[in-house]
Structure formats: structure tokens, C-alpha cells
Design brief:
Elements lengths: L3 H18 L8 H10 L13 H12 L1 H11 L11 H17 L4 H15 L2 H12 L5
Helix pairs in contact: 1-2, 1-3, 1-5, 3-5, 4-5, 5-6, 6-7
Length: 142
Amino acid sequence: MSDIKSYQRLLAVQALYESSINIRGIELPFDELISHVIENADFKNKLEGVELLLAKEIYNGVFSNFKKIDLILKRSLNNEKKIHTFDKLLLSIFRCAIYEIAIKNQISKKILISEYLLISNHFFEEKESALLNGVLDNLKKT
């Protein structure tokens, strides 16, 4: 990853994941949560002076559209109950990607799938990335 927007997508995923595993996660203001994520990131020097507007938009967009995003994800899976077995980090990647692809819908689906596959590859093996690719490619809108 080398593009500032790619790093912001990664930050949004990590912030969403952090809020899902942290008892106080949802209560924390975005700026506090994201500064904690950045402090522990190996790419924090690349974000110096960046306003992180995209990361904030994705994070807030996921929370504003949470039910709709999960409904889209469930409908796009072969087994709707499978969502409950996903790793929280993988679920965070799905939610951010679905927000950008199906809700925000301003950038090519192909580009966004590629972006989120890079994020997935950062954390997971090929199996999870293949699942992510297949589900995102076959998104069914509500």
C-alpha cells in the first residue's frame, strides 16, 4: 500500500475492528480511536499532516448504515447465518467495503474490491481473501 487513500481505508477498517473488540470502542470519539490505531501502526509516518477525512467518512458511514450493510452482506452470502461465524476483523473489512461499494457508490467496484483485497491480504491468508473477493463481486443490494 502506498496511496494515502489506501492507508485511510486500512485505518477505517482497523478503527472499526478496534471498536468491535474494545468495551469502550463505540463510546470513544473517532479522533481518539484513530489516534490509538495510528500510534500502533507501522505506517504512521506516512500519515503526518493528513486530515484522514476518508477514514472518518468510511467509519461514520458504516455506523450510520450498519443494518443496511449487514443486510446486504447476508443477502450476498450463500448462507446468511455465516456472518455470525466471521472473524471480527474480516467482518470489519466487509462492512467498510460494502459501505464504499453499495452505499457511497462513487468509485468503481473493481477498484474498491482491489483495495479491500490488499487490506485483507495484510491480515489473512488466501482463503479469506477469496471469500471477500467472491462476496464483494456478487453484492446484492437491498
